[in-house]
Amino acid sequence: MKTGIATIHAPKALGPYSQGISTGQLVFTSGQLGLIPETGVLAGPDVESQARQVMKNIQAVLETAGTDFAHVVKTTIFLTDMAHFKAVNAIYGEYFPDTPPARSTVAVAALPLGGLVEIETIALLP
Question: Measured at the alpha carbon of residue 43, what is the angle toward residues 96 and 22, in degrees to the nearest 5?
Answer without folding.
Answer: 50
